[in-house]
Amino acid sequence: MSAITEINYCPDYKTFGGFKYHLNFPDEWITSELSETGRQCWNCVGNGENKGYGMWRGVIIGYCSNCATDYNMTRGRGFIGYGIEHNCDGPSAFDLYLGDIDWSNYGDLEANPEDTLEKRIMFLEYINIYVVDPHEDPYDYIECQDDVEDPDDVEDPDVEDPDDEDPDFGTCIHIGCGEGTDTGSSYCVKHRRKYDP
Questions:
Q1: How far lies 33's CA from each of 7, 29, 121, 142, in Å?
Q2: Which structural domain range is residue 135 located in?
Q3: From CA 140, how far away is CA 143, in angstroms rounded?
Q4: Domain count within the chain
Q5: 68 contact partners, CB below 8 Å, separation of at least 6
Q6: What is the 3-state secondary structure (H, E, C) of 51-83?
Q7: Rounded CA gap, 195 and 30, in Å?
Q8: pTM for this predicted structure
Q9: Tens-of-pLDDT digits for all 197 residues of the chain?
Q10: 26: in domain
């Protein structure tokens, strides 16, 4: 059986290649993705679990921030988890195509119990972005992420500093990068593919 190669439209999302997409996600982007981005990127869609950084409750809303750089930010700045977009230069996915999202009711919470508003707010606090009012959309923040101290900058005396060998180490803002994994890598999937021997 071959993968579905036609976009199908439902009341709350559209489908292509076995994935659900936000209705406003541009069709031409769905059918013209670069290799190893979007549906082919574990950071965007997860490892067969539909729990990637570019998703909210099982629906693709954008690209992970690594893939966003592959598109030179022309498709948004990239998501870093829980529907939160990276705060860097470039057009926002919310301005390009997403618009307003009702985070409480969008997607399938039962199938994606990790994607809660509480976790979304907690992640915003974790990356030290000020939320004006927790009852407002958590996307409405005012502090620039670049001005925030990176918790990965705290040195561990037992860990060799990879900055000495690779100036790009630690630049990934994805959940999982720099935290170590059961695979022994401190990189997210895409960076592990790129940097690990």
A1: 14, 6, 30, 32
A2: 8-148
A3: 10
A4: 1
A5: 62, 75, 76, 77, 78, 86, 90
A6: CCCCEECCEECCCEHHHHHHCCCECECCEEECC
A7: 27
A8: 0.67
A9: 345 579 999 999 999 999 999 999 999 999 999 998 999 998 899 877 778 899 999 999 999 988 998 999 999 999 988 898 888 788 999 999 999 999 999 999 999 888 999 988 888 777 654 444 333 444 444 333 344 344 444 444 333 444 444 434 344 555 555 554 444 555 565 555 555 54
A10: yes
* Cross-strand bridge partners of residue 13: 22
Is 164 within a domain? no
> Residue type for 61, please?
I
Residue 193 counted as domain residue: no
How far is Cα of residue 69 from the mean position of the Cα atoms in its chain?
12
CA 39 to chain centre: 13
Residue 20 lies in a domain: yes
Owner of token pair 């809660």: 116
Tokens of 110: 């039962």
How far, in Å, are 123, 168, 195 from residue 187 at the CA level?
A: 19, 11, 8
